[in-house]
Known about the structure:
Arc Repressor Mutant, subunit A; two-stranded antiparallel sheet; mainly alpha
Amino acid sequence: MGGVQYLGEFEQIVLLAILRMGDDAYGVTIGAEIRQQTARAPAAGALYTTLDRLEEKGLVSSAMGDPTPQRGGRAKRFFKVTSTGMQALTQGLRSYQNLTRGLQLPGLEHA
């Protein structure tokens, strides 16, 4: 996929949660990480729709894990951010940094 890929806010949040979860990034853990870090409770449908869309765009890849008895024999679908996803995320975050540079926003410290 060529050209610049612009991400929506929730897409960026999902990609960041996947990166934070590492090898344990599947739907439930991604949603829990988003809740913990942002105090937002994404609906399962919205999260899985976003994950599917990110995969269609080539920004994440997924692979099925082994079925487990705890899940009634169902397998987990694990996600990883692709190099294209990393580029899009980095570009989006850099844009936010550029926009906030020099601003004094209450409760926000710049790294």
